Amino acid sequence: MGIVVLGTGSCLPKRVMTNVDLESIVDTNDEWIRSRTGIESRHIGGKDEQTFKLAAKASLKALESAGVAADEIGLIVVGTISSHMQMPSTACFVQNEIGANKAFAYDLNAACSGFLYGLDLAHKYILADHGMKILVIGAETLSSRLDWNDRNTCILFGDGAGAVVLGYSEDDRGIVGTNLLSDGSLWELLHMHGPESANPELKVEGYSGAFIRMEGREVFKHAVRAMEDSVTTLLAREGLTIDDVSLVIPHQANIRILNKLIDRLKVSQDKVFINVSKCGNTSAASIPIALDDANRQGLIAKDDLILFCSFGGGFTWGAALIKW
Ligand code: UT7
User: Fold this and answer.
1) Lesser CB count within 10 Å: N end or C end of the chain?
2) Alpha-carbon separation of residue 319 from 55, 169, 180, 232 (angstroms)
3) Average pLDDT over residues 35-49
4) Selection from 232, 279, 224 nearest residue 256 by Cα
5) Ramachandran quadrant class, 280 (left: phi over 0; alpha: psi -120 to 50; beta: rest)
6) What is the structure's pLDDT at 208?
């Protein structure tokens, strides 16, 4: 028996912003961005493409591919760091948008690891209640949280949403294991303040606006090491090796991070799904968008072992294995 992915879906905003478009916004160029990040373009939300709208569209596609009706969903979890409002949660907006009127709903903040954290908690809910079906979503409009004068960050991120429907199956497929970790001591290297405090006593020291701030080089080093460690630990714990894995779907942060990871894991390049060139880093949405992309391209077959790994602000990181 196992907790299986019944369906996948994703949604990207219509507008595509290329590296050349960015040249007129900050002092950068296409060659620098391509060679340092592997990104060629990213999608940027426009009218009616708020985080919850993208999430709802991705969810409807996932429900359709699962053959599950919205009112069969018991829980909606949205991993996001760019929620539509501070309150209510983006998950509640999604519930309303798709008519999942029997679900309870909440958001989860684990930055770029939000989808894997959501997958893990859905796994545990369904283990406790086999009748439950859960929508796990990663959704972001990071374009609304970027300092468009900061070339260190604004070139990296994009908007989008991905979703999966999870449910119980009697056969031996499903989530094999997860290995999630956090280290709050390194928060400063990658963070985003909220709205400025209305209480003068609670003003945040060094407040620099509600934008993503990052020490790129440091994040890079930690990301490679952390993802490698979480993957090797998980594989060892499950008595598996990288050769047992059919497809790796990593967080799409940067092609150089992914290439280093590929070297260290000694996995062949053609077993790693990469779409960072056209989406950029979509934080919590990156893995479920890539998963849906791979699934719809027919790259995943029944019984394939799929490996996910992520790294993000917090720091949060981890890995997950699913027998499809
Ligand atoms: O989900 C996890 C989220 N974060 C990440 O994945 C990011 C991880 N880090 C990275 O991907 C890389 O550190 C970056 C792509 C952000 C930066 O690449 P880098 O090779 O580490 O460059 P750097 O920050 O060391 O900067 C090198 C130079 C600097 O100029 P000087 O001081 O050498 O003259 C920067 O000012 O490149 C300059 N630079 C740029 N030039 C053109 C920084 N950003 C840009 C830019 N265009 N957009």
Assistant:
1) N
2) 23, 22, 6, 9
3) 98
4) 224
5) left
6) 87
Ligand 1 pocket residue status of 28, Cβ below 6 Å = yes
Task: Find out whether 245 and 307 touch, Cβ atoms under 8 Å.
Answer: yes
Q: Which domain holds residue 231?
A: 175-323
114-128 and 286-296 helices cross at what angle (nearest 10)? 80
**Residue tagged 């007129």 (tokens):** 24
Provide the CATH number for the domain around residue 127: 3.40.47.10
Burial of 220 (0-12, 13-18, 19+ CB in 10 A): middle
Separation of alpha carbons 240 and 281, rounded Å: 29
Structural domain ending residue among the three candidates 171, 193, 209: 171
> Catalytic one among 84, 154, 251, 279?
251
- In a shared domain, residues 271 and 290: yes
pLDDT band at 1 (very low <50, low <70, confident <90, very high): confident
- The predicted structure's pLDDT at residue 258: 97
Question: Which atom number of ligand 1 is nearest to the Cα of residue 111?
Answer: 1
Please name which of 289, 264, 318 lies closest in space to residue 43, comparing C-alpha atoms. Answer: 289
Please tell me whether residues 21 and 43 are part of one structural domain.
Answer: yes
From residue 284, how far is each of 9, 49, 142 by CA, in Å?
Answer: 14, 17, 10
Whether residue 226 is found in the same domain as residue 289: yes
The answer on 123 and 18 residing in a single domain is: yes
* Active-site residue (options: 92, 112, 154, 279): 112
What whole-number percentage of the chain has pLDDT above 90? Answer: 98
Q: How far apart are CA 63 and CA 5, in angstroms?
A: 11
